[in-house]
């Protein structure tokens, strides 16, 4: 059980204890409840370390005293995994928010676990790259939480899992031992790949504090379409055709049913461009990754690029091939329409919670 002596010891273990240690019940309250507001704990102390070494010292003391802990990132999960069940100490990563640099030779970013995903996106944008994961909670979720839950996100089909994109990782075990596997070499087949054990472990094996992540290039252009169909079987057929026709240009494909659509519409007041009369909806994104435009073979035949956007042409070729499966469809004409379509998909969880 947590004692006054324990709190005093924690204050000695961290720099700036006035920032790192939270004891006020009002300030602790947000750390005690999950994002959907259904699971509530009774945590009496929140510790916000600023370095891997501080995490190590805190966990070492907790292990010695047998004090239960719960690691917490942005607390955006929907299953209560990041909040205490009873009176566990919360170790929040929100002060470990430094980005250590981007290596454009191998396209790898080194970042603390407490960096907010959207902040990492903004950091990488000037380099022309982006994180391999994107979520509706990008404005508050932490990259460490993305790793701990092996978040797939909306671009999983194109960019794969966090397992596939994590090159290096640093974590602290329950007894305070620091596991440093922060290698930034992509082609490394030496020894055990221990970092993979922590990705998806949800804090049960240790606390992730730092990572080196492989970043894909930002597409030069994207085309987003929303399609409507009558059955889930049609949804799967559209997926197969999209992969076949769009190939490497397919950057995202998501579906939702009318129940989800109606909740987003009625609760969040987000309007679906296709309305709410259809049983299933398929959101498809096709992106251009800057491949060279083919050169025309003669003066009489214009180059392919002059005939219009090649990715857009592929998208309409997809529509032609699935015309018997879709009952309605729309292609976003500008960024506001693109955002409107994506907001329908991203707002589903929030709509059901409210």
TrEMBL record:
<feature type="domain" description="FAD-binding PCMH-type">
    <location>
        <begin position="39"/>
        <end position="218"/>
    </location>
</feature>
<dbReference type="InterPro" id="IPR016167">
    <property type="entry name" value="FAD-bd_PCMH_sub1"/>
</dbReference>
<keyword id="KW-0274">FAD</keyword>
<dbReference type="InterPro" id="IPR016166">
    <property type="entry name" value="FAD-bd_PCMH"/>
</dbReference>
<dbReference type="GO" id="GO:0005739">
    <property type="term" value="C:mitochondrion"/>
</dbReference>
<protein>
    <recommendedName>
        <fullName>FAD-binding PCMH-type domain-containing protein</fullName>
    </recommendedName>
</protein>
<dbReference type="Pfam" id="PF02913">
    <property type="entry name" value="FAD-oxidase_C"/>
</dbReference>
<dbReference type="InterPro" id="IPR006094">
    <property type="entry name" value="Oxid_FAD_bind_N"/>
</dbReference>
<dbReference type="InterPro" id="IPR016169">
    <property type="entry name" value="FAD-bd_PCMH_sub2"/>
</dbReference>
<dbReference type="InterPro" id="IPR036318">
    <property type="entry name" value="FAD-bd_PCMH-like_sf"/>
</dbReference>
<dbReference type="Pfam" id="PF01565">
    <property type="entry name" value="FAD_binding_4"/>
</dbReference>
<keyword id="KW-0560">Oxidoreductase</keyword>
<dbReference type="InterPro" id="IPR051264">
    <property type="entry name" value="FAD-oxidored/transferase_4"/>
</dbReference>
<dbReference type="GO" id="GO:0071949">
    <property type="term" value="F:FAD binding"/>
</dbReference>
<dbReference type="InterPro" id="IPR016164">
    <property type="entry name" value="FAD-linked_Oxase-like_C"/>
</dbReference>
<dbReference type="GO" id="GO:0016491">
    <property type="term" value="F:oxidoreductase activity"/>
</dbReference>
<dbReference type="InterPro" id="IPR004113">
    <property type="entry name" value="FAD-bd_oxidored_4_C"/>
</dbReference>
<keyword id="KW-0285">Flavoprotein</keyword>
């Amino acid at each position: 059980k947590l004692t006054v002596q324990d709190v005093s010891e924690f204050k000695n273990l961290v720099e700036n204890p006035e920032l790192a240690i939270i004891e006020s019940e009002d300030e602790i309250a947000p750390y005690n409840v999950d994002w959907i507001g259904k699971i509530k704990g009774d945590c009496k102390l929140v510790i916000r370390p600023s370095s891997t070494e501080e995490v190590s010292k805190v966990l070492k003391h907790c292990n010695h005293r047998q004090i239960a802990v719960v690691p917490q990132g942005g607390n955006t999960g929907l299953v209560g995994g990041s909040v205490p069940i009873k009176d566990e100490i919360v170790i929040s990563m929100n002060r470990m928010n430094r980005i250590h640099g981007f290596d454009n030779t191998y396209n790898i970013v080194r970042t603390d676990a407490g960096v907010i995903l959207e902040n990492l996106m903004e950091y990488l944008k000037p380099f022309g790259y982006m994180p391999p994961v994107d979520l509706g909670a990008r404005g508050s979720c932490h990259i460490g939480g993305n790793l701990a839950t092996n978040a797939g996100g909306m671009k999983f089909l194109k960019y794969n899992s966090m397992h596939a994109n994590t090159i290096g990782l640093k974590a602290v075990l329950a007894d305070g031992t620091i596991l440093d596997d922060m290698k930034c070499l992509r082609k490394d087949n030496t020894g055990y790949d221990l970092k993979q054990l922590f990705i998806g472990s949800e804090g049960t094996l240790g606390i992730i504090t730092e990572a080196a992540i492989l970043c894909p290039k930002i597409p030069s252009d994207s085309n987003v379409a929303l399609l409507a169909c009558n059955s889930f079987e049609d949804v799967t057929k559209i997926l197969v055709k999209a992969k076949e026709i769009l190939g490497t240009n397919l950057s995202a494909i998501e579906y939702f049913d009318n129940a989800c659509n109606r909740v987003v519409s009625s609760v969040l007041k987000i309007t679906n461009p296709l309305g709410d009369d259809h049983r299933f909806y398929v959101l498809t994104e096709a992106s251009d990754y800057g491949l060279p435009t083919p050169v025309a073979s003669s003066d009489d035949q214009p180059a392919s690029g002059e005939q219009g956007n090649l990715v857009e042409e592929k998208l309409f070729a997809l529509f032609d091939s699935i015309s018997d499966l879709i009952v309605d469809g729309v292609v976003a004409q500008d960024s506001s329409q693109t955002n409107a379509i994506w907001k329908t998909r991203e707002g589903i969880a929030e709509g059901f919670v409210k």
